[in-house]
């Protein structure tokens, strides 16, 4: 299988309205900038987006929120996006807020083929509404279902033409799990190399999980908040 495509527009060519997408990254760190821009250009609508956060007003998933292409957000942290807040309060955006550990584990379980698991997180809150509860060691736990997506879109530091991926430091965050949980996984990389050029011991996502890969460009790599020590 030839997994290499020429650019982001080719990579997302078959994503249609009403698709469910996983988008890797944490805050603005390690997000698939090129693919998000391509989704904006394509103009598809009614997307369900699974991401740890919702970007900021003019970057990341905030671009898709600005153009009203997202119908539902499934996230754990959304505090940096004023447009997200406005749409939520106006009833224009469906939101499923998920505890961060639960979100990460639901994605991991999908990649591992495990349909559900139990966690104490969220018990006694709105998160528990409608969910099965069981008691383990005297403590109530919620049953959470594995979280799947039509497409998983991630950004890695390096990848080879077979789809093997290497991430730098914290950019792997949600991305390594998401790459295993999508029916189709798309990877954009800063460097695209030939098979054999990556150290097998350092590969974070094996190529068997990746369906399309391309070399991205013009990464901004924004920082949400720059903090310095005085």
Automatic annotation (TrEMBL):
GO molecular function, a single term: succinyl-CoA:3-oxo-acid CoA-transferase activity
Keywords: Transferase
Organism, as annotated: Chitinophaga silvatica
Keyword Transferase assigned: yes
InterPro entries on file: 3-oxoacid_CoA-transf_A (IPR012792), CoA_trans_fam_I (IPR004165), CoA_transf_BS (IPR004163), NagB/RpiA_transferase-like (IPR037171)
Protein name: CoA transferase subunit A
PROSITE patterns: COA_TRANSF_1
